[in-house]
Amino acid sequence: MKKETEKPFIGVAGIIIKGGKVLLGKRKGNHGGGTWAPSGGKLEFNEEFEDAVKREVFEETGLKADVVRFAAVTNNIFRKEKKHSITLFFICRIRSGKPRVMEPGKCDGFGWFEWGKLPRPLFLPVRRLLEQGFDPFARQ
User: Fold this and answer.
1) In the predicted model, is pLDDT for residue 3 greater than 80?
2) Is 65 within the bounds of a domain?
């Protein structure tokens, strides 16, 4: 029987697009360390999705971003780490700033990548996006 505290957490991620590329950061730490992912994190209590995305993008990159649209959702079961998350992805555009590492304990750096040429390894939620055939540049 599972404990009551064993529940998935809700995460948000901002897929920042610019000039046909997406911004990804290389994660540090024991949860996905060494993998590449867009900026994101946990949705806080009483927080709107888009506000959470803007907050996370700013906290991690220093960028002020506008949320363009909802993109996709993934169900992520990290068996080895015994974690489970639901991630809501949103397409974002930069309003101001240049990406810089704001949380050096959590990120090794950022890079711009073409969607078809993403770096490896990818964080599980991003792999799930690819499994869905998601393309951030497709018109919806």
Assistant:
1) no
2) yes
How far is the C-alpha of 129 from the C-alpha of 84, rounded, in Å? 16
The confidence band for 13, taking pLDDT boundaries of 50, 70 and 90, is very high
Task: Tell me how far apart the alpha carbons of residues 139 and 58 are, in angstroms, rounded to a whole number.
Answer: 26
Q: Read off the CATH number of the domain in which 86 is found.
A: 3.90.79.10
Task: Tell me the HSE value of 73 on the side-chain side, using a 13 A CA sphere.
Answer: 5
Residue 41, domain member (yes or no): yes
Domain containing 37 equals 9-97
Residue 138 lies in a domain: no
pTM comes to: 0.94
pLDDT tier, 30 (very low <50, low <70, confident <90, very high otherwise):
confident
**Spatial CA neighbour of 102 closest among 64, 63, 62:** 62
Beta bridge partners of 70: 90
Q: Tell whether 1 is covered by a domain.
A: no
H helix runs in 7-112, sequence order: 49-61
Instruction: List CB contacts of 112: < 8 A, sequence separation 6 or more.
Output: 18, 19, 21, 22, 23
Quote the percentage of the chain above a pLDDT of 70: 96
